[in-house]
Design goal:
heterodimer, A: 286 residues, mainly alpha, 13 helices, globular, B: 496 residues, alpha+beta, di-copper center containing domain from catechol oxidase, Jelly Rolls, 2 domains, five-stranded antiparallel sheet, four-stranded antiparallel sheet, 12 helices
Chain lengths: 286, 496
């Protein structure tokens, strides 16, 4: 105890401590970014383990197995045909990694709109509601993907495994591009900036914060969900995820209203997938 | 091209050539189709447009949907972009009007005048300038392009705006950018992205900007129609001028240096309808905005000199001061239910809690908002009205603190905290591609008033009554709901 108090005293005298302390006061959402960082770390480990860069010598075998099962770097059909648990686990990992940084502002608002003693609880309730919406969307995406798998494989395209893989990915990105240009998406983007009055005590305040999270989550799903679903169905890995996350962040915080950057990016991805479809079809016939 | 000088309309004769040519230009621009970017309707729609509103009926064919999405409904409100965007908007408008005037044979150096309604030395400052109230002009005795039906200001019983509505308390704001949620609104407004939520209004936007809009009324009372009124442009010229006044008041008043504020690009049309774009970094010096302009009577930057101080004070000021970061605003009280406002006064009770965060540690046991026997208050207090939603054009609500039950508010000016103009509440409440539908957010700094209340014998610690008094009855289609009334406290800067 004496040592702890002495340590606190030393900290208080550290010239920079007050600045760090103030930064924490004004950034109560620091742990949001920490969780996001940890999620990216997990994704990176999963990628490295699936590609063989990380083996049992580097990481616990049980953890390695779990990481590999949640790796996104696999074909869409393999992914969608896999047990739902790991797929949804990977999907939920995507939420803190890619989406939590995008909700920094409403999380911060809910913190400052709550009494000091419960600001972290308020943020947690918000994120709980927010994540719940994305989980529901993940379930819908998984089901839609399995239906798409069935339909495309039933068409018995030549070299159907690889070709249908690329075709499904192209279709997903094309849909995302089309959605990006709709007025509904623009409305959803505005909705991502909404606020809500929240209570200050008890479970009612928790529910208010959770409801706030679901409102923002629903707006986020409508604005970013199509692109996320396309990425998931394409089975692309961390690099593509990071690129999309960066693009969505730019759109949220830097680009002017009405920017078509996301639409163009999705269209480009669809075109790339179509070219891949064609190449695989040619190769399979050769 | 010489730099234009924007003149005070109060110092111009009723039909000075500046106003005469403005009227002619307005008439000419109104003749142009709404598809023409240099038309009156197109320019007004860039601020706000809603085809359902009566003011926009019958304007003829509209520009393509893509152009409307790109250029119309662009006004930045409840945002730190409020001031720079309106500066750009006015600059291009002035250029287009000046071109129209030159085409009509008028002077090439026409400049938009400003309406200094806060000028206490002018007896008619708060009345509508005569040229805008007249029903005829020297060139058309039976019609006046500057006259707009529906205005309340200038109608019987509304000769002038209330003096307190055009007060310049905003000029005392120390910072351009608002504090985090709950604290100071800042001079220019909160940090936002382009897709702003239409949320908290900065101090200057709150007062006098919003209040002048609703006091003039008519199309001015709604941001979706306001720019249709020729007086809109003189009003915003004054708001733009007050930005300069604030910057020149003291060297500590500075614009943001954040890249997002400086570099976000906004789209307009220049003379001839040519697409153009500007960003805030390009409009910081008015003499370099397009052909450049200045304001009549504005003190020059070099004219500002520090006030003389005593040697002891100068020595103290030059001594090294440890940097102690300020505590963030802390929520101390809030209502638990939305408050639906009607045509009669509405009172809410706030139970004030003790501060628990860093503010408590800073105050070292002194209650943030408790009675203080002597000295300045230990904390600044901010009364927030959050997520105000509504329909129609509701009246202004005046806020009083600890008003005795049944008392006439007019007899208790000492308890007056400030106004809620509610300018744009309807559009802020609608979720569309420009608004989140979260409503509006106003902040009243009540430090001084609370300090006065604390010294009264009837002050009750930890209890604050907030009474909202409408200036008139709500119209049948108007409604107002305040999502939350809350009280925040923040360590006062004078303590650090």
């Amino acid at each position: 105890m004496q040592l702890q108090l002495r340590a606190l005293g030393v900290l208080a005298m550290w010239p920079q401590w007050r600045r760090w302390q103030a930064a924490l006061w004004y950034a109560p959402h620091w742990w949001l970014w920490t969780i996001s960082g940890l999620a990216w770390l997990w994704i990176g480990v999963a990628e490295a383990s699936a590609s063989g860069l990380l083996g049992p010598a580097w990481i616990d075998p049980a953890l390695l197995s779990l990481c590999r099962s949640m790796s996104r770097d696999r074909s869409a059909w393999d992914a969608l045909g896999a047990p739902a648990g790991p797929w949804l686990g990977a999907w939920l990992l995507m939420v803190p990694a890619m989406m939590f940084p995008l909700v920094t502002e409403p999380v911060r608002i809910v913190a400052f709109a709550s009494p000091w003693r419960r600001r972290h609880r308020a943020m947690a309730a918000f994120l709980g509601g927010y994540t719940l919406v994305w989980l529901a969307f993940g379930v819908v995406t998984l089901l839609a993907g399995r239906v798409a798998t069935f339909v495309l494989q039933a068409l018995a395209l030549p070299g159907s495994g690889a070709v249908a893989d690329a075709l499904a990915a192209a279709a997903g990105f094309a849909l995302a591009a089309a959605w990006a240009w709709t007025p509904m998406r623009r409305r959803a983007l505005a909705g991502c900036h909404r606020t809500r009055a929240v209570g200050t005590t008890g479970w009612r305040a928790d529910l208010d914060c959770m409801h706030f999270g679901t409102l923002v989550g629903w707006a986020c799903v409508r604005s970013c969900g199509a692109a996320m679903a396309a990425l998931a169905m394409a089975g692309h890995g961390a690099v593509a995820m990071a690129a999309l996350a960066g693009l969505l962040g730019m759109e949220r915080y830097r680009l002017r209203r009405g920017s078509r950057a996301v639409g163009y990016a999705m269209a480009f991805a669809a075109a790339a997938m179509l070219m891949q479809t064609g190449a695989r079809a040619v190769l399979s016939m050769a | 091209m010489t730099v234009r000088q924007r003149q005070d309309v109060l110092r111009l004769a009723t039909w000075d050539s500046t106003l005469l040519w403005y009227a002619k230009a307005v008439a000419a621009m109104r003749q142009r189709p709404a598809t023409d970017p240099t038309s009156w309707n197109y320019q007004a729609a860039m601020h706000g447009f809603n085809a359902q509103l009566a003011a926009w009926q019958g304007i003829g064919p509209l520009p393509p949907a893509g152009d409307r999405a790109e250029y119309w409904n662009q006004c930045q409100h409840g945002s730190w972009y409020f001031l720079p965007w309106h500066r750009m908007y006015l600059a291009y408008f002035e250029q287009i009007v000046a071109t129209a005037i030159a085409d009509l044979g008028g002077p090439a150096d026409w400049a938009l005048p400003f309406w200094n309604y806060s000028d206490t030395s002018h007896p008619d400052a708060r009345a509508l300038p005569a040229a805008f109230a007249a029903t005829g002009t020297p060139f058309s005795p039976n019609s006046n392009p500057l006259h707009m039906p529906g205005r309340v200001l200038g109608s019987p019983g509304h000769a002038t705006m209330p003096a307190r509505d055009v007060g310049l308390g905003a000029l005392a704001q120390a910072s351009y950018v608002a504090d985090v949620h709950g604290g100071s609104p800042g001079f220019g407004g909160p940090r936002t992205a382009f897709s702003h939520a239409g949320g908290q209004h900065g101090a200057l936007e709150h007062q006098p900007h919003d209040l002048v809009h609703v006091d003039v009324a008519g199309v001015m009372a709604d941001p979706r129609t306001a720019a249709l009124d020729p007086i809109f442009w003189l009003h915003h010229a004054n708001i733009d001028r007050l930005w300069e006044v604030w910057l020149r008041a003291t060297p500590s008043h500075t614009n943001p240096t954040d890249t997002p504020w400086l570099n976000l690009t906004f789209q307009f049309h220049a003379k001839g309808g040519v697409p153009a774009a500007l960003k805030a970094s390009q409009v910081l010096d008015t003499t370099k905005v397009l052909s450049g302009y200045t304001y009549e009577g504005l003190p020059s930057v070099a004219a500002h000199a520090p006030a003389p101080v005593s040697p002891a004070l100068a020595a103290a000021a030059s001594a090294p001061v440890p940097m102690t970061p300020s505590t963030p605003p802390e929520l101390l009280a809030a209502t638990s239910q939305p408050q639906v406002l009607g045509s009669t006064s509405h009172t809410v009770q706030l139970a004030i809690e003790a501060a628990r965060g860093p503010l408590s540690a800073r105050l070292r046991g002194v209650e943030a908002l408790a009675a203080a026997s002597a000295g300045p208050p230990p904390a600044d207090a901010f009364l927030n009205f959050e997520n105000i939603t509504g329909t129609g054009v509701p009246p202004v609500f005046d806020v009083y603190l600890n008003l005795p039950p049944g008392a006439d508010p007019a007899a208790h000016e000492e308890l007056y905290a400030g106004p809620l103009p509610l300018f744009g509440v309807a559009s802020a409440s609608e979720a569309d591609d420009r608004h989140s539908g979260s409503g509006m957010h106003y902040v009243l700094q009540i430090t001084e008033l609370l300090d006065t209340l604390r010294k009264r014998p009837d002050w009750q610690d930890r209890q604050l009554q907030v009474t909202l008094v409408p200036r008139s009855a709500l119209d049948a289609d108007a409604s107002v709901t305040v999502g939350r009334v809350s009280l925040y406290a923040k360590e006062a800067p004078r303590r650090r």
